[in-house]
Amino acid sequence: MAEADIFGPDDRVELIDGEVVEMSPIGSRHAGCVNRLNRLLTANLGERAIVAVQNPIQVGDLSEPQPDLVLLRPRPDFYADHHALPPDVFLVIEVAETSLRFDLERKAPLYVAGGIPEVWVVDLADGVVQVFTPGTQVRLSRRDGASPGAFPDLVVEVASILG
Q: In this structure, which long-range contacts are made by residues 12-20, counting pairs with CB atoms below 8 Å and at least 24 apart in sequence?
C-alpha cells in the first residue's frame, strides 16, 4: 500500500491480523529507550545477532508489524532479500509509553502465537519489563535483570533499559 501511495512515507501504520492500524507517534522517552537498548544489545552481542530497529517482520500471512527492536539471526544480506520471519527472530522488544494496552493485548500474543520465542514489552509508565514466552509471562522490576533466551550469558539490567 505504501508503494501505491495510499500511505505517505511518514505515516505510522502497521498491518496486524489483516487490519491496518495507525500507531502512536514516538515520544522522546520512547526514542531514548530504543536508543539505549540498541546500544546495549549491539555492544554486547556483536556479530551474534543483527539488532533491527523499527523494521518490519512478517508474522503469518496477515501481519507485518514493526517492533521497536528485534534480535535476528545473522544473515549475509542483512534481510535485504525479504523481511524476517519468525524462525529468524530471537527476540522482539516493544517499548510502550502510550501503546501499552495494544502491545500487551494484541502484539505480544500475535508474536508468540506466530512462533517468535520471546517478547519483551518495556512499560515506561510503570518502570517494568514484561517478558513473554510460549506459556509464560514474567514481570521484571527495576532491580531485576533480563536475559534473552537465545543469549543467556547476556544480562540486561531493567534499570539500564529504563534509564
A: 14/56, 14/64, 14/65, 14/66, 15/62, 15/63, 15/64, 15/65, 16/63, 16/65, 16/106, 16/107, 16/110, 17/62, 17/63, 17/106, 17/110, 18/62, 18/63
What are the structural domains, with CATH classification, of the chain?
27-162 (3.90.1570.10)
Region 151-163: what's the mean pLDDT?
Answer: 96
Tell me which residue of 125, 109, 108, 117 sits closest to 162, measured CA to CA: 125
Radius of gyration (Cα) for the chain, nearest Å? Answer: 15
The pLDDT assigned to 21 comes to 65
pTM score, whole prediction: 0.87
* pLDDT average, residue stretch 28-42: 95
Residue 78: band (very low, low, confident or very high) from pLDDT cuts 50, 70, 90: very high
Q: Give the pLDDT band of residue 104 (cuts 50, 70, 90).
A: very high
Largest CA distance in the chain: 48
Please say whether the beta carbons of 44 and 157 come within 8 A: no
- Return the residue matching grid coordinates 508489524: 65
